[in-house]
Amino acid sequence: MKILTVIVLGVVCGAATAAASDKIVCYFSSWARYRPGLGMFDVEDIDPFLCTHIIFSFTGLSNQTWEIEVLDPWNELCPDEEGGHYCAFKRTVGLKDLNQDLTVIVAIGGWNEGSEDYSMMAEDPRKRKTFISSVV
Q1: Which residues span the membrane (predicted)?
Q2: What is the mean pLDDT of the chain?
Q3: pTM
Q4: Class of residue 112 by CB neighbours under 10 A (exposed 0-12, middle 13-18, buried 19+)
Q5: What is the rounded distance in angstroms from the CA atom of residue 19 to the CA atom of residue 36?
């Protein structure tokens, strides 16, 4: 019985160690704040201790400047920025104040963006360099 107990404890401890090192990636669709009623989900609804990484969606690609661009300034930027109101970017990054181990990443693209502009950017070295500089 003692051997069985030791084996069970070893398995449980091993599983806990493996789980502690896992990455848990949470994907946050910023437009979820526009859902009506109980479907609304905003930055403050994210549990920053549930996730090791949060992917904020979406930003886009400007086919004029070939830089990353904000798709919903009213939601994503702050009032002191042009067209801003709700500060979703800043509030999402602010979750790191609660969990310093949290990694916040922004998704570029989305189903409305399509792929044509991305293909044009990728095939031109100057456009590609401009884009890379804007996201790093």
Answers
A1: none
A2: 88
A3: 0.79
A4: exposed
A5: 35
Residue entry with tokens 């070295």: 125
Collect all residues with Cβ–Cβ distance below 8 Å to 40 and sequence separation of at least 6.
32, 33, 34
128 C-beta neighbours (distance < 10 Å), count: 14
Residue of 12 and 118 predicted with greater confidence: 118
Structural domains for the chain: 23-135 (3.20.20.80)
Position 30: which residue type?
A: S
Sign of CA dihedral 106, 110, 116, 117: negative
